[in-house]
Amino acid sequence: MVFDNLSRGHRAAVRWGSLVEGDLAERGKLAAALERHRVSVVMHFAAHAYVGESVTDPALYYANNLGGSLSLLEAMREAGVDKIVFSSTCAT
Hints:
By secondary structure, the chain is of the alpha/beta class. It is built from 3 helices and 4 strands. It has a single domain, classed as 3-Layer(aba) Sandwich (Rossmann fold), CATH 3.40.50.720. The radius of gyration is 13 Å and the shape is globular.
């Protein structure tokens, strides 16, 4: 199951499994999707990763990368999911 707001992703990239459209900030929707799809492990790749953009619009990056990650962790806790693979930035 892929959970994505498609703001920077592409529907065609979801080739296996289902796509649930939503934003990480929608914790309730995310927790429900985790439960409905019986997710046991989360792979988190939802961070913004452009260094230049992070300097010009830091609030966007704090909201998505920090706030979204915290929302995801809380949704995982609510859904009983206790395993996560967290991807580092592609800019490393």
